[in-house]
Structure formats: C-alpha cells, structure tokens
Amino acid sequence: MAKAFFVNSGSEANDTQVKLVWYYNNALGRPNKKKFIARSKSYHGSTLIAASLSGLPALHQQFDLPAPFVLHTDCPHYWRYHLLGETEEDFATRLATNLENLILKEGPETIAAFIAEPVMGARGVIPPPATYFEKGSYVYDSNGKKYIGHVLGRRCRLAMF
C-alpha cells in the first residue's frame, strides 16, 4: 500500500468510503451509480451514512434510516440463518444468489459498491462460510461493482493496575 488516508473513527472512514466511491463514479460519468449494499446484522458506525450501512434496526428506528441509497442483503451467519439440511457451501451459494438478485432487481447501473466486514464483529466474532467472498466476488465483479472490506473490530484496551 503506497498511500494511507487517516480519519478519526470507523464511522468517518465508512462515510469517506461512500464519498470516494461517489466521486469516482461521478468522475467517470456514472452519476446514477450511488447505491450501496451492506449486510443485515452488520455494524459500520454511528454517523448517518455509517448507521444507514449498518444492518441493525436499533440504529435505524427513530432516525428515518437507512438512507434510500442503502440496501441490505443477508447476514452470512451460517449457524443462525442456514436452512434445515443446508451445507455451508449451499448457504454461501444461496447468499451469493440473493446478492445477485438484489443487484439485478435494483439495476446494476445503480449499484456503486458492496461493503462488508471480512469477519463480522457487532454480534460476536462471526466468520462467513469459507467460500462466501469467493462466490460474492464473482457476483459483484461480473456486475461491475466494487467491494469495500473493512475492519472495525481491532479494539484494544490497555490498563495499568
């Protein structure tokens, strides 16, 4: 990595990612490519944009969120959301299919990016199925989308007694 962009918080980092993707698409003459897809049960921060990206109803209620440019897709928590008899591989395939269907329903020309934590941290440490990002990358790459991965879960506490 040749360059870094420093901000004060994860919320600010996610807001900046949205602005950079919008700027990029505007510069390329694609002003309609503004929608972001995030995952339900995810956490991206507490500012208006970051809270909209978050898939937690408590962050949406009473604030008129999520913003209209934010869409949510399935949470990749296999143990909670798999169907009876569904393998992890089948679960990952179903989620990739649902993601593709969402992109097609909204119109690929309107979707700017898919934002996701590599390991979800808002509800514990929840890794997705092994092939989740591989299957998903085919979906968003083939539809001309950008993937934004980020890590908010690097929290450390130091104390002296």
TrEMBL record:
One of its GO terms (molecular function) is adenosylmethionine-8-amino-7-oxononanoate transaminase activity. InterPro entries: Aminotrans_3 (IPR005814), PyrdxlP-dep_Trfase (IPR015424), PyrdxlP-dep_Trfase_major (IPR015421). The keyword NADP does not apply. Keywords: Aminotransferase, Transferase. One of its GO terms (biological process) is biotin biosynthetic process. This is Uncharacterized protein. It comes from Saponaria officinalis (Common soapwort).
